[in-house]
Each structure stands twice: as C-alpha cells, then as structure tokens.
Design brief:
With 368 residues, the protein is an alpha/beta fold. The chain has one domain: Thiolase/Chalcone synthase (Peroxisomal Thiolase, Chain A, domain 1, 3-Layer(aba) Sandwich), CATH 3.40.47. The chain has helices at residues 21-25, 32-39, 51-66, 90-97, 114-127, 151-154, 215-237, 254-263, 275-278, 285-295, 344-358; strands at residues 4-13, 17-20, 43-46, 75-79, 104-108, 133-141, 159-169, 174-182, 246-249, 304-311, 315-322. It has a five-stranded mixed β-sheet, sandwiched between helices. α3 (51-66) packs across α4 (90-97) and α7 (215-237) packs across α8 (254-263). It is found in: Cytoplasm.
C-alpha cells in the first residue's frame, strides 16, 4: 500500500516591526486609503534578521505542533528567493540553528510559488517511500530588494516565514495532487535584476536593485495560471467547487484573489485572506495563511483544501490536500526572534534615503 503524506505541524514567524500605509504615505506620493483600495494591504512586517533566523523560529513552532524533535527529520526544505547566502544554502543554516546534523537540506527558488513547489517535492518523496518526515518552510525578505522610490513596488511587500511538518501516514488523508508550471516568456515582467552571475564580476552596481514590475501583466497572468492550476488539481482529485472546504491563494493583491475566486465560483466563506496584515510575503504567504486558518478554526478534520500560488519566472502551481485528523498543536514552542528594533520606519530609514539618493531624487522631509 502506498503511504500518504500529511501535514502534522505548522508554525510561523512574523517580525514585530510593523510598516503601516501611513508610514509609506510619509515619503511616497500616496495615502493609506489609496493603498488599501488597490491592494487590500493595511500593514506589513519588516525585518533586518536573516531568513534563516525567521525560518528556524517558524520551523521550531511547526515541530512542536507536530510533537517531533528536529533530530527526527529526514529533510529540511526552504523555499526562498532571499536567502542568507547562495553558498551555503539557507536550509543548511536552518539545520544548524535547529541544532541537528545529517538530514537533507534543500533550497527551492520558485519565487512566490516556492512553497507549493517545495511541498510537492517533499510529498512525492514521502509517497514514494523515500523519506518519512520533513520540514517545509516558505520564507522571504523581499523588502531587502525594494526600491523605496517606486510606489508600485514599495507598497506591496512584507517579510515573514511559515512552516509545516509533513509525515508519512497510512490514513486516507494528506497530499492528493499537484500541478506545477512556468511560463518563461514572462521572465521580464517581474524580478530582481543585477543579481547572480549574469552580472559582470567586477560590475559596480548601485545598492538599489532594479525591480521590473509590470502590474497589469502580472495581474492577468496570476489569475489565469492560478485558475488553471486549481482547476487541474480539482479535476485530478475528483472534486467540484462544492467539495472544497478551504481555498488559500498567494496573498499578493486582494484584487487578484477576488477575481480568481470569482472565476472559480467559490463563496467568500471558503476563501482565507490575511493580506491586510502582511502584504506580499512571497513564498511565506501560503504557509502563514494556512497556519492562521488553523488558528482561526477554519480547518476541520477531513477538509478538502486547495493551495495555489504564482510568482516571478513566471512560476505557478496548486496542490490539493485532504486534512488529517488533528487541527490543534501537540505542543507550543516558545521560540522567537532575538530582540531587536521594532520601529519599522526607523529600521528602513537609511535604506529609503539611499534609494532616493541613488535615483537622484530629493529626500522627503519625513526622512531628514
């Protein structure tokens, strides 16, 4: 009998520093109401900690919820496009911060779709009998890349991490099907330029990154591909829309989520949304939303759940899950980030000023 792969633990790490729309309006030509009306975002979290720090905290919470010790893991997968270093990978650093040795440590970079990609890889290996227990983390700090002079980018992103423990089970529950893809014709509409070996080795690039962001193209592609992926996994699972108990889409923009769920004809009470608190946390949005759905009592034993995401590349994907029997944590971890500054605007002040200086624009009075 082929074993199944079920989520048994979940956790998150959200930095304490909150950047509100009003903070952004103090140095950008915008207002809090304008941002909320167009994105659904009211605030987002900001960190200067490393992604491995956020990932380790989220991972400890997920392990406690599963009732596991880190030493029992066969693998750690970290989905991120803003890892601490390229070599070694971030998953190796997370392993070290969990105080263990020996298990596989893998980074997955599929931008905002990364958690879906990583979860699919882990579930497939568990179902094939190649591993028994794994920690899957989605974590990003895209505010590191933001050009704070560009309103269309600066208002969207936040930092955070979410994690799940996936285990083998003989029960009729867990991971059902997935559909992953990429439309590389859209490489140029979203990304971070001047990073990687495509940049001349001795090129003296400015501290402010170029972030191509074609909003309308992203909007249309995100809806189309998440819809297609979701319908594909529903078909494979033999589910109709009325069979879905919870739908969690990448929290990039409330307009995208609303349009997507209307296309799928899903009622609002089956859709989980938390974008107003965190903005777009890239690979972290789906696991954090899943964690908060559990905390809010929105997940019940045996529920049919769809997770879907879309990101730079243009990557996309969806997966279907039948939730297991447990919806409350076995234990609660006390893990948290090391103390640090909690005022987001103060944390970002020098980065924001540098963005304006490098774009040869006058520094706003609020930053002087």
């Amino acid at each position: 009998m082929t074993q199944n792969a079920v989520i048994t633990g979940w956790g998150k790490c959200l930095p304490p520093a909150i950047l509100t729309n009003e903070h952004l309006a103090s140095f950008l030509d915008t207002s809090g109401d304008w941002i909320t009306s167009r994105t659904g975002i009211e605030e987002r979290r900001i960190t200067h900690k490393n992604i491995s720090d956020l990932s380790a905290v989220a991972g400890k919470h997920a392990l406690a919820a599963a009732g596991l010790e880190a030493s029992e893991l066969d693998a750690i997968y970290v989905a991120t496009s803003s890892g601490d270093t390229l070599i070694p990978n971030t998953a190796a650093r997370v392993q070290n911060k969990l105080g263990i040795r020996g298990c596989a440590a893998v980074d997955v970079n599929a931008a905002c779709s990364g958690f879906i990609y990583a979860l699919t890889q882990v579930a497939a290996q568990i179902k094939a009998g190649m591993m028994e227990k794994a920690l899957v983390i989605g974590a990003d700090r895209l505010t590191y890349y933001v050009d704070w002079t560009k309103r269309n980018v600066a208002i969207l992103f936040g930092d955070g991490a979410g994690a799940v423990v996936v285990e083998a089970t003989d029960d009729n529950a867990g991971f059902q099907f997935s559909h992953l893809g990429c439309d590389s014709d859209g490489l140029g509409i979203l990304g971070v330029d001047k990073m990687g070996t495509n940049v001349p080795r001795y090129h003296d690039h400015p501290g402010a990154f170029e972030v191509p962001f074609e909003g309308q193209e992203i909007y249309m592609n995100a809806i189309a591909e998440m819809k297609r992926s979701s319908l594909e996994v529903m078909k494979k699972s033999g589910w109709h829309k009325d069979d879905i108990d919870l739908f969690i889409a990448h929290q990039a923009n409330i307009r995208i989520v609303d349009a997507l769920t209307k296309h799928l004809k899903l009622p609002a009470d089956k859709v989980f949304i938390n974008i107003e608190k965190y903005g777009n946390m890239s690979a972290a949005t789906v696991p954090v939303a899943l964690c908060e759905a559990l905390e809010a009592g929105r997940v019940n034993a045996g529920d049919n759940i769809i997770l879907t995401a879309f990101g730079a590349g243009l990557t996309y994907g969806a997966c279907s899950l039948k939730w297991g029997s447990r919806t409350t944590p076995v234990a609660i971890s006390s893990a948290e980030l090391a103390p640090g500054p909690t005022d987001a605007l103060s944390l970002l002040k020098e980065d924001i000023k540098r963005s304006y200086q490098e774009r040869h624009q006058p520094i706003p009075d609020a930053l002087k």
